[in-house]
Amino acid sequence: AGNGLQKLFALAGDPDARLLGVKPAADPYPLYEKLRARGPLSQNRMGFYLTPTHELVSAMLRDQRLGTTSSAALDGVRWQRHPEDEQLVHPVEHSLLTMNPPEHTRLRKVVAPWFTPRALRDRTDRVEQTVTEFLDEIGDGEFDLVRDFAIRVPVRVICDLFGISDDHRDAFSRWGTVLAGTLDGIRTIRERRAVRDTLVEMTAFFDNLVEHRRTHPGTDDVVTGLVRARPDGAALNRRDLVALAGLLLGAGFETTVNLISNGVTALLANPDAKRLLIEEPDRAADITEEVLRFDPPVQVTGRLTHEPVEYGGTRIPANRLIVLFLGGANRDPAVFAEPTRFDADRPNNREHLAFSSGIHYCLGAGLARIEGEVALRELFRRYPHLRAAGTPLRREGRTIRGLRSMPMHTGVPR
Ligand code: HEM
């Protein structure tokens, strides 16, 4: 979703104010149920169409008559202020997420090889080493689950993919926070300035990295691959290169950090599931899958009708925005029995839509699954008595759901 779309979300008034409005609800799930009670497809005062049902979200994500949105299409608040800002590259607006075929198809093919099951199999050991290293550093006692663990794992994994060290992790996480914020729209001058400043830093960083790889190619890192790629016989242009690298960085950790923190939250609240993970660590994949269904890091996305479509007797004209609640689809009682229950034994938890569907289906899904699985399994293997040691702080924002901070104690006797 582009920031224009999100700006419109922000303007969307009652009755969806708490789902789409400026101040997001701490717990959106009851709101999805209110929406569901209104029917599979409703329209709000802004003229947006909204759906929380699994059937419609899934069908619409795969419907080629719908496309992604960009802020240009929706004329939202722009972060560009000056002509020279045209040189800045926005990793969401200028990349796969907001592209439509045929550009989307061409670019996606270029990065896909780093995410095949085979490429991922080769990365699993490294993810395990990484997790072990960070757990060793935590040792025993109090720590912050987000700062000291959940964020470090995906940042390191993505840096490995880029063939760079994670020395810049503080800058990355600062950029990630600002960019994830833009998914919810830019509302104030301060926010706009923060976005622009971030894009200045980020564009420079990736411009440099790309240039460096031109002259110092690596062996199997993704940036070298992007520099060398010649889809349809031509090299990628600078904007595509920088945007794609930025997207991989941002999408690679701003989401996965929340898979881990939402997973720990769910497991601490569900002792049976926690016991299962500790007693049968090879069930970690099922548990991770249920975390993705139960509390997905990306709660909402949007699509624009490219032509008139009809769903369930409702005709939607061209150029209308449809808001798709992934978090609502994942709790649809028509697909998931007792959807509010965390249940790792659910026969169909893989039908969740946490990674979207269709042509924009998350490229990093396999990698995220490995990270979630290894992180949760090893964390609880090491600290079966892990417990909260303070009040967790939720992230603000509607699109991304997770925690900003989680003070914990490793639970080892003092
Ligand atoms: C796209 C979720 C991890 C890279 C998406 C979309 C969702 C999503 C919902 C599609 C949005 C839409 O259809 O509008 C998640 C979640 C993750 C995660 C919940 C972690 C739990 C990752 C990782 C990477 C990644 C680790 C890369 C290293 C991407 C890319 C796209 C994408 C490149 C754009 C694909 C396209 O437009 O063709 N992700 N993601 N994601 N994700 Fe992920």
Write up what this structure looks like.
The protein has 414 residues and is α+β, with helices and mostly antiparallel strands. It has one domain (82-301, 330-355, 364-409): Cytochrome P450 (Cytochrome p450, Orthogonal Bundle), CATH 1.10.630.10. The chain has helices at residues 3-11, 17-20, 29-37, 54-61, 71-74, 103-111, 117-138, 145-150, 152-162, 169-182, 189-215, 222-228, 238-254, 256-269, 271-279, 284-294, 326-329, 365-382, and strands spanning 42-43, 49-51, 66-67, 142-144, 300-305, 309-311, 314-316, 321-325, 387-388, 393-394, 403-405, 407-409. The strands form four sheets. A five-stranded mixed sheet has the order 1-2-8-5-3, sandwiched between helices. A three-stranded antiparallel sheet has the order 4-12-9. Helix 9 runs antiparallel to helix 13, helix 11 (189-215) crosses helix 13 (238-254) and helix 14 packs across helix 18 (365-382). The longest helix is centred in the middle third of the chain and has 27 residues, at 189-215. 47% of the residues are buried.
Q: Which features would summarize this protein structure in a list?
A:
alpha+beta, Cytochrome p450, 5-stranded mixed sheet, 3-stranded antiparallel sheet, 18 helices, 9% strand, globular, binds protoporphyrin IX containing FE
Globally, the shape reads: globular
Q: State the domain count.
A: 1
CATH hierarchy: architecture = Orthogonal Bundle
Strand content: 5-15%
CATH class: Mainly Alpha
What pattern of helices and strands is seen along the backbone? HHHEEHEHHHEHHHHHHHHHEEEEHHEEEE
Terminal Cα span: 47 Å
| Main structural class | alpha+beta
Strand order of the largest sheet: 1-2-8-5-3
Question: What is the helix tally?
Answer: 18
Q: What is the alpha-carbon Rg in Å?
A: 21 Å
